[in-house]
Amino acid sequence: MNVVVVGCGRVGSYLAELLHAEGHNVAVIDKDPGSFERLSAGFKGTRILGDALNEDILQQAGIQNADALASATNSDSLNATLAIIARKKFRVPKLAIRIFDPSTAEIYRKLGISTISATEWAANFMKDVIVHPWLYPKLAIGNGEVQITEIAVSPGLVGRPVESVSIPSQVTAVAVVRHGKAIIPYPGMIFQENDFVTLAVLTTAMGRVEELLGH
Predict the structure, then answer these.
(1) pLDDT averaged over every residue in the chain
(2) CA 23 – CA 108 distance, rounded (Å)
(3) What is the arithmetic mean of pLDDT over 80-89?
(4) Which of 7, 24, 125, 185 is deepest in the core (most CB within 10 A)?
């Protein structure tokens, strides 16, 4: 893919490196020349110094042929504005922006812009670490609304069917790790001693999981 990354701070530079490592063509825009020092010597993408709101700068970055734009500056409004310009003027199909204010994130999502709210994600994750320390978080989906967690199967669950820990629209068992090997649950599968179960859990349902698993 051809990807334009706006903002070469900690997030933007790391994203650019990840995309480059996967073989994508990456152009990074930033107004601060010193920001490009965050990129490794092995980064072969394009570095563009300038204001991303300047159309000439965007075109230097190849926005007219871009498959995606990711904006990770420190300004929510700038990130959103760039995404709207990329979509409406240049028809860029894939957009992702970083948002600090969780209250505005949903507004941009309704516009079809994928938003990543570091504030919302971190708060949800830290809350779970504090309130539910028995969880082993694996992945947060979206901005933390759904958590993928791994939990040791308690003695009270041994001999019970895996589906007994599922709650429609709230908790779903997606895998069981048995003897070090992950298995996708099948109908009638029974928990065994020393199993670990991986769950997709709605963040607001963590208390229900606690009840189900006897923690």
Answers:
(1) 87
(2) 29
(3) 94
(4) 7
Output the pLDDT for position 165: 87
Edge-to-edge order in the sheet of strand 2-6: 46-49, 25-30, 2-6, 68-71, 94-99, 114-117
Is residue 36 a contact partner of residue 47, using CB atoms and an 8 Å limit?
Answer: yes
Q: Return the higher-pLDDT residue of 129 and 89.
A: 89
Residue 150 or 45, more confident = 45
CA distance 75 to 50: 16
Q: How is residue 39 written in tokens?
A: 């990129």
Put simply, whether the predicted model's pTM sits higher than 0.85 gets the answer no
Residue identified by tokens 């958590």 is 147
132-213 is a CATH 3.30.70.1450 domain? yes
Q: Residues with Cβ < 8 Å from 63, sequence gap 6 or more?
A: 4, 69, 86, 90, 92
Q: Which CA distances in Å does 194 have to 49, 165, 178? A: 55, 16, 7
2-120 to CATH, choices 3.40.50.720, 3.30.160.100, 3.40.50.970, 3.40.630.30: 3.40.50.720
